[in-house]
Give the backbone structure.
Amino acid sequence: MVSTALSERINATQFVDTHEHLLEERTRLAGAGAHRLLPCVDAALLFAHYAKDDLWSSGMTADESERIFSPRVAPADKWALLEPYWRRCRQTGYLRAVAETVRILFGVDELDRSSFAAVSEQMAARARPGFYRDVLGRAGVEVAQVNSLESPFCETEYPDLLQQDLSLMNLSTDVSASLVEAWGRMSGLATGGLADWHRVIDWAFERYGRRADAVKSQAAYNRRLNYAAVPADQAAPLFDRMMRGEALGPAERKALEDHLMRRCIAKAEEYGLPVKLHCGHYAGVDRMPLDRVRRNAGDLCPLLADFPGVSFVLMHIGYPYQDEYIALAKHYRNVTVDLCWAWIINPAACVRFVKELLLAAPSNKLLSFGGDYANVENVVGHAAVARRGLGRALSELVSEGWLGERDALDLVEPLMRGNARALFPIFRVPA
């Protein structure tokens, strides 16, 4: 049972939201189909990011999924398709976030055919310029950090509200001849060889680094995180071959990416930017190699040791191998673990994780919330799940005798916002 004082403190404290993929408001207002993560704009959109993975896992067919997320099917008709899978999944974190969103934002306690259509109408009515700020305010989010899926660094409409990551994917992992040439056109720099590409990387940091909150890589979706120290003279011929259109073997491709990633991390250190790394569970369905996921934490240790001046933010608690991330936070001065996304992957695991990390590692090593959504409304529901879970974790530590009530109350502000404000230099840059 969460005490009244603790509940009130948590509910009154705003989150610094350390991870979202929010589409720009202008993209959302452009309507269905404006981005691959915006298939429709009715209530089905609340299920389109993450919730649909559980629906699929529970047995939804491809044809049903296509119709549910189609902009051409009426919302009331969608509910008939969706309802049986909603019943199977409504207890999961993904679906709980949807339920909390419709309760808090739209005043709906129980979804059915009528309320699904009513939520759709409300979503359409509220989607007006400025509504992102209103929705994030309802979530209790004072500022959100966005890893844009629209550009490597998004020139956002709301820089005071939506801080931006600089993505390293195009610079280090997804590098191809066509992308190199595109960056060359954007920067106005030559791209003939590896030394030229180094200058493009330098240009990207010079252009965006002082406005970025951090750099971000989700390369763990495609490879191990064992980045070896590959010197330039070994990487240069590989880069040249790639630019000539030659196929690199797996070991060769890894060596080139290793070199480029370490180059980017060195630039991040120069600019004082934390390095955010996806770790653990995969979004999507039917494609996660758990053996590779299991190695994430161990693979990172040489990188953590080789860059002691870089703050590494290890995301999603590495679920389902979260114990290793507590050990990394305890051992390495430059490691912080982020609960972003994890509250809706498995809320109960996150409660255990908060308790165990606080008993093993310094409390400043934990960031407590990031919605990880492309659509803004679901941030509200996820934030509610996170507040509930954080309250339960701190209350259990009190009831089990590990913390006093005052200690628990004193942890709320740093866990919800203070740790992030201390970690990310963007909070110390004059506006």
Notes: The chain has a mean pLDDT of 97. The chain has two domains: 42-126, 132-428.
